[in-house]
Predict the structure.
Amino acid sequence: MTPLFLNLGGGEVTLIIIVILLLFGGKGVPNVARALGKGIREFKDAANGIQKDIQEHTGHITNQVQEHIQEVKKEIEK
């Protein structure tokens, strides 16, 4: 199911831009855009940190599984 905001057409985007300009004015739009960009950057950094932690922890588990596989192979060969 695609998010609703991905199905916006040109008219809807234009209307949204006009509403933003009316609400924040010409001088406020750069501040809003800057804050939005900073928020997105922080979210991406947090997501990357979580992904890195997961990969580190699963890497340890993967090594343990590989060791057990090697032990089982040795037992089978005997």
Q: What stands out?
A: The radius of gyration is 25 Å. The chain has a mean pLDDT of 85. The helical segments are 10-77. The chain has one domain: 4-77.
